[in-house]
Write a structure and sequence with these properties.
The complex is a heterodimer of chains A (130) and B (155). Helix content of chain A is 18%, strand content 37%. Chain A is α+β, with helices and mostly antiparallel strands and 130 residues long. Chain B has 155 residues and is mainly beta. In chain B, 8% of the residues lie in helices and 41% in strands. Classes of the chains: A alpha+beta (130), B mainly beta (155). Chain A binds chain B through residues 30-39, 96-98, 127-130, and chain B through 2-6, 24-29, 40-42, 66, 95.
Chain lengths: 130, 155
Amino acid sequence: MADFPSLVPSSRSFNPGDYPTRRYQTLNGTVWKRSFGNVRVGMRIEMQFANISDDKAALIWNHYRSEAGTLSRFDINPAFVFGGASNGLRQAASVDPSVRWAYAEPPQVESVFPGISTVSVTLVGEIDFT
Amino acid sequence: MSVIRICQLFDWQPSGQPRLRCQNYFAGEDFVYNGSTYRFCPFQVSGNLAALGGDSETLTCLFPNQELVLQLVTAGDGNRNSELTLTNLWVNASGQPLPGAFPEFYVGNGASFSETTVELRFSAAMDAVNSQIPNRIITSENSGILPLDSSIRLK
């Protein structure tokens, strides 16, 4: 599986996910929580690559095709996906080694000018246990 | 602290097949407990573990439709006559097991498949064992060639 293309997004939103937990609140308000795993999952990265050349947009689209759409999981290069962020923030956004990334949905490609496109991509972090 | 962390250890011996030991808490890791290594597998367990009436309630274990589990179930007589030792292990925040865990023993009672999951059913071996344990099935070995499109009446 090929890594996500080495492109730095023009804007990015990151949700760090959570540990798989079920919550039970008793009648007196006390909250009990049961943890079902030791790895944080469900992280989500929403990226927008604004006004990039169609060739770069094709890189993303071809990667989506090569990963069988939302089916396969792959790795990302934080130097690009989290490009522009400080090292501290990049470290804080790191995930467990058992977590890999997948497309949450097909990339949205908007043609804004001849040869220029804006691409929106959403990735989700999933445990890859196979 | 009102946080519960339970790692379930699944020690399963299908009939005539190699033993499968797995755990469902430490993602992507092998977990060693009492000298045995449990690999990670995201299964879930549900069902009644104890009943006052002694009726053998069904314990259901749901696995992803994974090749290994599918092979073991298929080759292991459909989870009949299998043995399961299920241990609910309480762990602390740093992943260390807490004392007090005890194993529970079950006997395989069948399996069913869907396109995404394999459901293994068990009954408690120390419970009121009825005629369903072990389950009997009609095969060509004990009843001869079976018709495909008509009903069978057993006496």
